[in-house]
């Protein structure tokens, strides 16, 4: 089994942010660029697990690179290169650790909102819908079952929480207060267009993208796609041949891990429980199957 990468360390580079999964580095002499490195860390319920998933960072990187290429006609993205040989020379000493799990990207100003698109009702939206058919300002059809497909994909923004806290779903009106009405319109249109193209492609591969979260940033006044895109960490991927409304679905994402954690007597706050080898292995296989299907 691949030796997992839990935390990265590159002394010649400056670590500027360590997220749930990704470590971001500034590259000396290149103020307009960042080095983004995907670790094998995995989080659930906004808690980083103590146990990594070997090879996960490489899966996330490969998928993101695939989607950046497929979707580049809709909106510009931040990718410069994923080939370490094309990185600034100071990075070359870390080639073995960077190859396959890193990207050199344009430095942008991330938007203060998460861009979530939902094609199916699941997760927090399903939980909220069971109490009221008006969810975050959206009036949803009566009588939906869990995992039902919406008539059209809906854009449902959320706030960005600090590490360890939960993002909060917000209305379009609230997002307009944060970023302005015109920018909110652009963000919504771009996000839905990205989702539709990706979802159509994935269906050809036997995968339903139930929902996903995009990150957009600003560079010289332009909105561009940043961070990871359409990975099992940021999306719900369901096998189409097993899809059946009225219940939760089997998945190629970390829902498998969430389901396991939900079966434990754990309050979803740190410290995280140690994951058994069986859960690590099965989660790894689900992620690898997703990348194999989509990128084949």
Automatic annotation (TrEMBL):
It holds the Pfam family SAICAR_synt. Keywords: ATP-binding, Ligase, Nucleotide-binding, Purine biosynthesis. One of its GO terms (cellular component) is cytoplasm. One of its GO terms (biological process) is 'de novo' IMP biosynthetic process. It is an enzyme of class 6 (ligase). The keyword ATP-binding applies. Its EC number is 6.3.2.6. It catalyses: 5-amino-1-(5-phospho-D-ribosyl)imidazole-4-carboxylate + L-aspartate + ATP = (2S)-2-[5-amino-1-(5-phospho-beta-D-ribosyl)imidazole-4-carboxamido]succinate + ADP + phosphate + 2 H(+). The keyword NAD does not apply. One of its GO terms (molecular function) is phosphoribosylaminoimidazolesuccinocarboxamide synthase activity. CDD domains: SAICAR_synt_Sc (cd01414). InterPro entries: SAICAR_synt/ADE2_N (IPR028923), SAICAR_synth (IPR001636), SAICAR_synthetase_CS (IPR018236). Pathway: Purine metabolism; IMP biosynthesis via de novo pathway; 5-amino-1-(5-phospho-D-ribosyl)imidazole-4-carboxamide from 5-amino-1-(5-phospho-D-ribosyl)imidazole-4-carboxylate: step 1/2. It comes from the Bacteria. NCBIfam families: PRK13961.1, purC. HAMAP family: SAICAR_synth (MF_00137). This is Phosphoribosylaminoimidazole-succinocarboxamide synthase. The lineage of its organism: Bacteria, Pseudomonadati, Thermodesulfobacteriota, Desulfobulbia, Desulfobulbales. The gene is purC.
């Amino acid at each position: 089994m691949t030796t997992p990468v839990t935390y990265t360390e590159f002394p010649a580079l400056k670590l500027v942010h360590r997220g749930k999964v990704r470590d971001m580095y500034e590259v000396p002499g290149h103020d307009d660029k960042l080095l983004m490195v995907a670790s094998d860390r995995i989080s659930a319920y906004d808690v980083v697990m103590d146990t990594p998933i070997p090879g996960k960072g490489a899966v996330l990187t490969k998928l993101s690179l695939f989607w950046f290429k497929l979707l580049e006609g809709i909106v510009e993205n931040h990718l410069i290169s994923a080939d370490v040989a094309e990185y600034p020379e100071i990075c070359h000493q870390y080639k073995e650790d960077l190859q396959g799990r890193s990207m050199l990207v344009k430095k942008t100003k991330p938007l203060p909102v998460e861009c979530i698109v939902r094609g199916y009702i699941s997760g927090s939206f399903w939980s909220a819908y069971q109490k009221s058919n008006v969810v975050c300002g959206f009036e949803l059809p009566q009588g939906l079952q869990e995992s039902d497909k919406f008539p059209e994909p809906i854009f449902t923004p959320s706030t960005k929480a600090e590490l360890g806290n939960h993002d909060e779903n917000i209305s379009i009106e609230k997002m307009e207060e944060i970023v302005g009405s015109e920018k909110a319109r652009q963000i919504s249109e771009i996000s839905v267009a990205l989702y539709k193209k990706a979802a159509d492609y994935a269906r050809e591969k036997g995968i339903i993208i139930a929902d996903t979260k995009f990150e957009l940033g600003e560079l010289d006044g332009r909105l561009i796609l940043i961070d990871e895109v359409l990975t099992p960490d940021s999306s719900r991927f369901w096998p189409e041949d097993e899809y059946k409304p009225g219940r939760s679905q089997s998945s190629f994402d970390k829902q498998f891990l969430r389901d396991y954690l939900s079966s434990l007597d754990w309050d979803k706050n740190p410290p995280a429980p140690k994951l058994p080898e069986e859960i690590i292995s099965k989660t790894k296989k689900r992620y690898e199957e997703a990348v194999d299907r989509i990128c084949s």
